[in-house]
Amino acid sequence: MLNCRIACSHLTSARAARPHDWRGRLFRHLARLLIVFGGLVAVPAGAAWDTAFLLSQLDATPEGGWVQVNTNKYSAAWVTGPDALPPSSYSNPAAIVHAWSSFAWDSRRGTLLLWGGGHANYMGNEMYVWQGTSGIWTRGSVSSRVEQYGTTATYFTVDNAAPQSAHTYDNNIYVPLNDMFVTFGGAAFNSGTNFVNKGANGTPERAGPWMWDPTKADPNKVGGTTGSGYNPSTPGAQMWSNQQGRWVGAEAPQYVEASTAYLMEAGNDVIYVSAQSGGGWPSLYRYQLGQIRLGETGRFEEVGTAWNAPSFKNSGVIDTRHGLYIRTSNVAGWPSGFGVWDLALSNAANPDANEDIAVRLVLPDGTQFAGNEGFGIAYDDINDKIVMWDGSERGTVWETSAAFELSGAVKDVWIVTQRPSTTTAQPNGNFQTGVNGKWQFVAELDAYIALDEFSSTTADAGVWLYKPFGWKRPGGGGNAPPSVNLTAPADGSSVAAPATVLVSANASDSD
């Protein structure tokens, strides 16, 4: 399949092979307007958590500068005593940060949720929680005990009530309506493939995505059931729920090297997933969640395919202003820096009708932006910016924005600007496996949060904030208006619109 797509992609390019079609352009214009004006109005009501500590740190930081905000070390939260993993080459929690990892940002509590490990690196599945209100690393659970299946590389958790540890790439995410942490995993311990549970006859059966309930967090309880930890007397809090099969439709074949991004659509939590079955051509999937705590069924469907911008390991984000899913695409021999899907063209009936758009990234002087396979990207919906952190050599920040033709089509070249640091202090970076999902925009702060690479010298993985140029302090001082996310219902139904909407548009078309 890889060779076919490389050989044939120029023949199937929507830009190169299709004739001028004013009807198609008109449809795309109207579809994008529907995304912007036809759906749910979701205006953040402001941070529910106390932002005072982090805003005070940002107040003292110059624009374009970094500030480290963790007040204890990551290692201070590690499990010790009888609940700890038995000593082995798979028992160092440093790997949760180091090994192809990501975090989720809990916008309700102002916490960074770190979970991972996986494959041949770490077998613990405990949750770590960094508190944005105080800067303190804490723990949300202790680890489940795992057992090997026969002589294979598959290890199960003993009670099937919590996930195996896994490399998470850019696959950890928080869904605010359900108030849940979601992980799709990626490369599970120690098989390197999807999550599995121990089936009725002892053989592996597919599991996940897994959801973790932050309301049940407890540093001294197992995430699964009582007796499932390394200390059999440690109580369990049943924090995890296995969502396998709790949907109509079909999920992605696997999540190794995949990316995720969140969008609220018609009052539903929706996760878009860029995942592949191998070969570097990830499809786009849409996963709409029901009310998880009530046991509602969700929907999983493929809505787009990749034919133009190949990608293996990728990080993804949604440009909510323009309804675009943007993923990194840095493959040797290919000019694309991003692969982009227009969500207005999502097509579950025929995913191939929604091809990715290959976008080349260039510096202001026209030279190619090098990028790298593992850099992180985030979208600032307040200032309409896509901001990247490359994580190499202490890290460099880069900015770009989606560019469009007069017809409304996405341009295939976007300009990237470097933003040099204004502070001496900044993350050490030098990630051996990439930034991946360890870089996010936090709207409550109008700033970016990053998790540094683990340092064996300091036994820490620093939490850092980056203060962008043009920063406006949330809550005062000329604050930028709150972001508005307006999206169309996936089922085509009608929703209440604002009482008055003023739309001004100009369009021109040479043919």
Describe the structure.
The strands form ten sheets. Strands 17-21-20-19-18 form a five-stranded mixed β-sheet, with no helix packed on it. It has a five-stranded mixed β-sheet with strand order 22-23-24-25-29, with no helix packed on it. A four-stranded antiparallel β-sheet has the order 2-33-32-31, with no helix packed on it. The chain has helices at residues 2-8, 14-17, 22-37, 52-59, 94-98; strands at 40-42, 65-68, 103-106, 111-114, 128-131, 136-139, 146-148, 155-157, 166-167, 172-175, 180-183, 187-188, 196-198, 204-206, 210-212, 240-242, 247-249, 259-265, 268-275, 283-288, 298-304, 316-319, 324-328, 338-342, 357-362, 376-380, 385-389, 397-400, 413-415, 417-419, 439-442, 447-451, 463-467, 485-487. Mean pLDDT is 87; it is low at 1-29, 33-45 and 477-511. The chain is globular. It is mainly β. A hairpin with a 4-residue loop joins β26 (376-380) and β27 (385-389).
The value of Rg in angstroms is 22 Å
Mean pLDDT: 87
Helical residue percent? under 10%
Tally of DSSP β-strands: 34
Poorly predicted sequence stretches spanning 5 or more consecutive residues: 1-29, 33-45, 477-511
CA distance, first residue to last residue? 37 Å
Structural class: mainly beta
How many H/I helical runs? Answer: 5
How would you characterize the largest beta sheet? 5 strands, mixed
Kindly estimate the percentage of residues that lie in beta strands according to DSSP: 25-35%
Supply the key terms.
mainly beta, 5-stranded mixed beta sheet, 5 helices, 8% helix, 28% strand, disordered N terminus, disordered C terminus
